Structure formats: structure tokens, C-alpha cells
Amino acid sequence: MAVETDADMLVRVQEGNFSIDQELERVRARSTKIGGIAMFLGTARDHSKGHDVSSMAFEHYEGMAQKKLKEIRERALQDFDIIEALVLHRYGPIEIGENIVLIIVGAQHRADAFKACQWCIDELKKITPIWKMEYTPQGDVWVEEHP
Amino acid sequence: MAVETDADMLVRVQEGNFSIDQELERVRARSTKIGGIAMFLGTARDHSKGHDVSSMAFEHYEGMAQKKLKEIRERALQDFDIIEALVLHRYGPIEIGENIVLIIVGAQHRADAFKACQWCIDELKKITPIWKMEYTPQGDVWVEEHP
Amino acid sequence: MFQVRLFGMLKTLVAGSNMLEMPLADGALVKDLVDSLKVEYPELGKLLEQKKVVVSVNQEIAHWETALVESDEIALLPPFAGGA
Amino acid sequence: MFQVRLFGMLKTLVAGSNMLEMPLADGALVKDLVDSLKVEYPELGKLLEQKKVVVSVNQEIAHWETALVESDEIALLPPFAGGA
Lengths: 147, 147, 84, 84
Description:
The complex is a heterotetramer, with 2 copies of chain A and 2 copies of chain C. Chain A is α+β, with helices and mostly antiparallel strands. Chain A has helices at residues 20-28, 64-79, 110-127; strands spanning 11-14, 36-43, 47-48, 51-52, 55-60, 84-90, 92-95, 99-107, 130-136, 139-143. Chain A has a single domain (6-142), classed as Molybdopterin biosynthesis MoaE subunit (Aldehyde Oxidoreductase, domain 3). In chain C, helix 2 crosses helix 3.
């Protein structure tokens, strides 16, 4: 599979869906030393904090969101013993069951890959200017995950 | 994507490669309550404990290997707050960079998915009768990961 | 006039607008902006006061002592909720 | 004759064969099998003694006190190395 592997493709905020196989190719193409790849895929649940959700939409701060995801990738590469990391987040309307966010971390060993992958998604939630609107039977709600 | 989702497809030892997107479909199709999916993909490294590796091959104990992977999936479903788990391992010759093992765990929340995914791969290495032959410039070696 | 971008639920506090304008002098601090907002948009002011909403300047989270110029890209950011 | 399956590096200890046969009586214990193996295949016996190789009976790891019958599926398992 021929895919672009430049750093810009490894950090993206995009409206459309993504293929995990294709994104994986970008990471594994970086080195034949990769032996363990940890991934996190966030998907749209039909339920949230006790209420039903019919669909959702994400809004991002164009520019700053990309900048923060880039920071996350760079800090992960610096602070963990890993070889490559990819961080993607979608924006716009998203149906139940669809992909929202993807983190892929390739390392020589699995423990490092897992640690870095968990750190990336935790950090993404903390520092990335992205907001979620949930459409529920009771109305539309902006979600405050970290009040 | 139409894929089989019966339990047999969620635990497999197979010779051929697999598509992560297709395997993911089996897990996410189980419930719209899934919000976090943690995955581990093990790939063939060209380097191992200080020596080069040109390719490898896995041998498994047919029957017992499947039985142990099934046990791992069932214990994961029982012991962790997760919704579905998939465990695949390849056997036969595998080239550098190729897929070897895949774990996918779907949960409502990401922390549970990560914990169970890590447990599955750790447990797989401990209890599954699978052996690795490494082909190296110095000759062929049976690898003893847990001597 | 300083332009201030609004995101997420903050837009609902300002009649659905994603931007507001505040009259400030170059060199004003973020806390001066917050003080002005408290007067014009009490609900917004309260969220800023409680640090539930943070101010970013040129795409970085700003301190209340950060000095502003009119060409700065200023935004008010409610709690983030990305990542699923 | 009891048939004993061999996996991984164990085959290299028995001239590349993936199976060996041992004369044992029904009701013999796993430790009796190990004792016989120590005589016939000293290298294999040593690995069993050191617990580097375990015995499985009907696809479950067996204790040394497990009793065997000829129809059991018996195997010798060297250290596992699956999972990448």
C-alpha cells in the first residue's frame, strides 16, 4: 500500500472518516524495528452519562487544534521509547458507531507502545481545543468533559 | 462491511494475514455502547536481543492454542468491564514487517479497554502454546521467550 | 476593536455568534479583557472568573497578566471535550 | 505404546521427529513418563527436570502426579514464544 508518510499526515484534524489499515501503514512504514503497535480508537457511543445520544458533532479551533496534536506527537516521541506516533481527530457531524479519534504508536516493545498510546489520548483530551455537541432526545447539549 | 461476528471468528489461529479494519468491524458490530477500542498489533521486527533477524516462522499446537486463546477472551470478558474482545495469532512463515498477533478490545470507556488489551497480550504470551523460529544470518534459532 | 473568537457552548451565551468585539487599548491585559467581558456579558464573565473558560492568545493558553495587541488572535475556550 | 508429541526446539533433540513413543502401562503418572524420558533422551529429561519443558495431557498443562492412559493426547511443550 503506497501512502504518504510525512509528518503532516501523522497529525490531522479532518472531517472525513479514516481507514485504520491505511493509517497503520504510515506508522509501520517508518521502521522495520517496530515490534509492538498500540492503538486507541474512540467511537461514538449511543449513551452518555445516563442519557441516550442519537448523534454528535465535533467543533475544533482550526490551527490551534492541529498545533496541540502536533505537540502531543512530538512530546510522545521525546518522552517515551517509541518509534512513531500518529494522532487523528475528526470534526463535523458523526453518527453512532463511527470513528472519532485514532492514536497509533509503534515501538520496539509493547509496554512502551501502550504507555505512550494511553498518554497521548489522555493528553489529547486535556489540551486539544475540540468540543462536542450531543444530539439527544431531550435536546442538543454541548458536552463539558472537563468542567 | 458485512463480516461474520460469531465467537469462533473472534478467536483464531490462522496462516494468512488479516485486515485490521475488517477485524475491528467484528468487535464494533457487537454493540453501539462501545466508546473506546484498544488494540495491540505485534509485527515482525528485523532485530531481536542483539542480533539481526531475516524472517521468522511460528509453530502452534493445533487445538490447544485455540483453546487457550478462547480462555483468554472469556476471562477478559469476565474480569474486565469490556464489551467484546478479539484475539488472533498467525502461524507459518512471516516476513519482517508483517502482522503476527492482533488483540482488539471494545469497552464503554478507554481505561478498561486498555487494561484488558494489555492483559490479553501478556496472558497470550504466558499460556498459549506457540513457538517462534528466527532465521538469522548466524543460522536458525528457536526462540525461548520465557525460559 | 479587539476581536474575540468563541467556541462551543459559549456561542449560545452570545446569541449564537462565534465572535465578539471589545473596545480595548493596545497593551491591555487579559484580565482587563475579562473585566470588560464581565460587564458586557455577565454569564461569560462568571465562567472566566471560575476558570471554567480560558483565554487563548495566538493559539496558546494565556495568563491573566498577558498583554494584548489588537492584531492578536484571541479566543475564549470552554472545557475541551475531544477524544470520544 | 504411549505417543508423545514434540514441539518447537524439542524436535531438534529427537532427530527432527515431532513424535516419540514410550512403553508405559495405563495408570502410569506423568513423573513416570519423565523418568523414562530421562533414560532414553537425557537432554529432554534435563529440560523436564528443570521445568523448562512442561507436559500437557489432553491440551492442559499436567502435574507430575497426573495419571495417564494410552489414549491421552500427551505433548511436551518448550517455553512459549508467541505474541510477536
